[in-house]
Amino acid sequence: MDWIEGELIDLKKRHLYRKLLRISSLQGKTIEINGKKLLNFSSNDYLGLSRKVNLECFKKWGGGSGASRLVCGNFSVHEELEERLATLKKTESSLLFSSGYMANVGVISTLAGEGDLILSDELNHASLIDGCRLSKAKKIVYPHNDTDTLEFILSKERKNYRRCFIVTDTVFSMDGDLADLKSLFQIKDTYDCTLILDDAHGTGVVGWSSLDLFELRPDERTVIVGTLGKALGTFGAFVCGTKFLREYLINKCRTFIFTTALPPSIACQTLENLKEVPDRMEKLQEKISFFREISQIQSQSAIFPLIVGSEEKALKISEELYKEGFFVPAIRPPTVKESRLRITVTSEHTKKEIELLWNAIHNLL
What we know:
The protein has helices at 3-13, 55-61, 76-89, 100-111, 126-134, 147-157, 181-190, 243-252, 254-257, 264-274, 277-295, 311-323, 351-364, and strands at 30-33, 36-40, 93-97, 117-121, 138-142, 164-169, 194-198, 222-227, 237-241, 303-309, 326-327, 330-331, 339-344. It is an alpha/beta fold. The protein folds into two domains: 19-50 and 277-364, Aspartate Aminotransferase, domain 1; 55-274, Type I PLP-dependent aspartate aminotransferase-like (Major domain) (Aspartate Aminotransferase, domain 2, 3-Layer(aba) Sandwich). Helix 2 packs antiparallel against helix 10 (264-274) and helix 3 (76-89) packs parallel to helix 10. The model has no long low-confidence stretch (mean pLDDT 96).
């Protein structure tokens, strides 16, 4: 295994080496790293709900689930949360998963198989990409948000395959832009496709569902994946769709079947957090509008990418911001093609804090 050290040295030379930072505080708009308090502009805790703790949830349900859902790990509070999430997403049912990665990988590899076609946006999250790779379906990557090219591919290829799946993020995690969901709905109907949407960064940010922005309702050919670990402030994920989809995943999806269930206390805490989402989401939208106005970075989400060029420059700006009391990590390949600062705002940031950050960034550019 001597080659591992050589690979690590190469990563360092190319400014692509990563390391863990030890945080000694609660998650939130301020965090403490190595004894230094920082204003945090990197978190996906968009509504500041990760700090919420309902002790009754943990007293009643404990810290773990003890088994998979299909053995003795299926608790009433799991199903209560699933019913609530399905209502919010306007679908017949939903199913909880232990993480967003497991949900995406599991759903795609379960639904798509040999003789099928998957069309995937080129900027999709790694979990969507890996789900496509694990399936036995034919995979075609289309240019980012290019629905004209997507439709052209389908006009040529659709007739050659049994089933077709269009896979996309709704809010893209590194760029903050939105998929053209209205066009995607029209295309899926025209070409008899199933649309698999990862709404991880849309849920609780742009609305209960990104579909609401486009005045769309999910139908039997719509699968929505969401996460509990971002705006909703806990951990885990869920898949929304028809009642038959839920039954099928329970029986066929390996990342659901062969893993310990989400702790019921987390499901309980999520139900408590959902009560606070509407008010906090309104505050978040105010902060998003404010940052968009002062930075002129166009984003409808809480994610603001600042492309800075080289990996070295991105690291340098991030380090300087750290010295000034701001935590904004550099995002580099292979996560993204172009190195950048990925700035996220939350409902908890004040306008003054947002302004201080932007002034500091502006002085470093």
